[in-house]
Amino acid sequence: MLLTGLLAGSTAVSAAGAQTAAPAAPPAPATQTAPKPAPAPAARASRYHPNRFSKRAELHYSLIWGVDDLAVKWTESGEVVRFSYRILDATKAKALNDKKNSPVLNDPKAGVQLVVPSLEKVGQLRQSSTPEEGKTYWMAFSNKGRLVKRGDHVNVVIGPFRADGLVVD
What does the angle CA 62 – CA 153 – CA 68 come to, to the nearest 5 degrees? Predict the structure, then answer.
């Protein structure tokens, strides 16, 4: 008798274990509201960087000014904004490295004009040597007060050279 009870219990367990359907939820009473949907997961940061300016603008800078790879970066915790460019044609790019032309970075959104600081023992924070083809040159603009932010569209003016709509990285 004990054996039949164990066998009957084991078949009941195996029959219950064979059912894989999830238990049904009790019906919601009419007085309760529907449960709120779960919040959407936070958006992942994208590593995709769109073109900073059009192919036509890139062609313009390379043909007229002899430069490409124009970039504006937010550095030193935002205290400095660095503008860099690569020389393709040294004769066309002379105006960018000329010491007589004082560079200015305009941010129309913030309403500021940044200049290249001049240090007592170092001089201006920019490269002003004779340009050589294939080399990358830079200049640093003082961003005291961090008025220019990442993502802002800025204009860089160096004498007759003007680059509009560059995005600060």
Answer: 15
Residue 53, C-beta contacts closer than 8 angstroms, at least 6 positions apart:
70, 165, 166
User: pLDDT tens digit string along 35-58?
Assistant: 566 565 655 655 555 556 688 999
For the chain, what is the domain count? 1
- Listed in sequence order, the residues at least 6 apart from 128 whose beta carbon sits closer than 8 Å to its beta carbon are 97, 98, 99
Round to whole Å and give the CA distance between 134 and 73.
Answer: 20
d(CA 147, CA 113): 10
Cβ-contact 57, 115 below 8 angstroms: no
Query: What pTM was estimated for this model as a whole?
Result: 0.68
Domain that holds residue 92: 75-167
Amino acid at 36: K
